[in-house]
Design brief:
Blueprint (H helix, E strand, L loop, with lengths): L1 E2 L2 E3 L2 E3 L7 E4 L6 E5 L4 H20 L2 H17 L1 H12 L3 H20 L7 E3 L6 E9 L2 E5 L5 H14 L3 E5 L6 H13 L6 E3 L4 H10 L5 E5 L2 H12 L4 E5 L4 E5 L5 H13 L9 E7 L3 H13 L20 H16 L3 E4 L16 E4 L6 H4 L6 E7 L2 H9 L3 E2 L1 E5 L3 H10 L4 E4 L11 E2 L1 E2 L2 E2 L1 E2 L1 H6 L2 E9 L1
Parallel strand pairs: 1-5, 8-9, 8-11, 9-10, 11-12, 13-14, 13-19, 14-17, 16-17, 19-20
Antiparallel strand pairs: 2-3, 4-5, 6-7, 7-25, 12-23, 15-16, 18-22, 21-24
The structure holds nicotinamide-adenine-dinucleotide.
The site of nicotinamide-adenine-dinucleotide has 29 residues, from helix 7 and helix 8.
Amino acid sequence: MKTYQNFINGDFARSEGDGGLEVTNPSTGEIVSRVPESTEEDLARALEAAETAQVEWAKRPPIERANALREVSKLLRENVDHLARVIVEEQGKVLGLAEVEVTFTADYIDYMAEWARRIEGEIIPSDRQGESIFLFRQPIGVVGGILPWNFPFFLVARKMAPALVCGNAIVLKPSEETPNNAFEFCKLIQEAGLPAGLVNVLSGSGAGVGKALAESDRIGMISFTGSVETGSKIMASAAKNITKVNLELGGKAPAIVLHDADIDLAVTAIKSSRIINSGQVCNCVERIYVHEKVADEFTEKLSKAMAEARCGDPLKDTTVDYGPMINRQGFEKVDAMVKTALSEGAQACTGGSRENVEGDGYFFQPTVLSQCKHEMEIIRKEIFGPVAPVVTVADLDEAIACANDSDYGLTSSIYTRDLRTAMRACHEIRFGETYINRENFEAIQGYHAGCRKSGIGGADGKHGLYENLQTHIVYLQN
Ligand code: NAD
């Protein structure tokens, strides 16, 4: 069995908590590694190292910071196979998707590195004679990052790359479920020669080291990706020191399929949205509002397509379409939600229960539920599984009213051939992102951000980068 140690001040460091957490392969139930349950002392050392490293790092010309990051992305590209297998073993996504996760991560780092020369301040005209007003954009200092398990490798870079380009250092806590790939990432950070202390990774529980990191008065921002429930706790922790929060939380993405939609396109995109990563993706379709004129055709075609999806252990069978749920808790949550929906009158057009796959993994059948009503739990709560609940609506107005009536506001999608309808819907739907006639997946240069309980602030592109900076205004009187 593998063991990993925390990455602090450029090295793998001993901790009293070494071996305190077990990491399990969700396809087999086997324990694959032991990692530290980090202590407060580990966190103090990591923060100290980050503070020291940041001072020198911020003085370096931005292009040097960018070039140092490009050394990391180069090494990621040289190690795709190995990294992808580590991700699959602890997280359960299919190998092809894990490979894409690694190469996308390298692209993401390169994209953020491109920004180094473009972080600009402003010169503002003064009302006073002889005065100049300068607005500088400065680093925040040390950023704290807390990660979920669903795209664990990419999320290391989504926090780290913009933070470092802007002249910050970072202390990261990966999910208890998926720390191994983060430590493999650290090996390459070390090999690439990034200054010691700039990136520190500590494994451990949310209630332990995660909470301590969010409560620390030594960080300038806590950047969190995960559930709404934890996001709320992190805000409370950050409130102690009025620490800036950046929260990327859960979603309940509606897909609206109108009577003039390309039904085959909608079926393909929505199926892939429910199957990718076993339906465990924050931005993917979680509820479908279909126009009554095409409801039967759409539901029949979606059910047929979903029924063809095969799941299994992605390391044993590289041809499966999707793997297991992350853990027993995730599996039981999906199972209970489907059972409740069926008891409330939904109909399983395909699937609806545990998949009959050999081994101890947490596999759920690809499932389509018709006859759902907007008030049902399955339409209101995040499922995070390969389940597509369908609600029939009379028109676009009803679809938009239902879509907006949600605690969540991350992503949404619309299928129609009429551009005017699409634009009207975009103006009326209140979500951070809307995809028109395409699958839900954000671009590096976009801005991934939700409204309502889906978060505060965002990631990616120029606006995501700028979250890692603070303004400093200077008045110079001549
Ligand atoms: P989670 O909230 O259970 O855990 C996320 C992280 O928070 C883990 O590292 C955990 O240890 C830590 N944590 C738990 N309690 C804590 C506390 N009190 N203080 C500090 N840290 C604490 O989420 P998860 O199950 O790992 O991930 C799934 C969720 O993440 C889903 O809701 C999904 O929608 C969301 N997500 C959102 C995005 C986005 O960009 N909006 C992306 C990926 C996942």
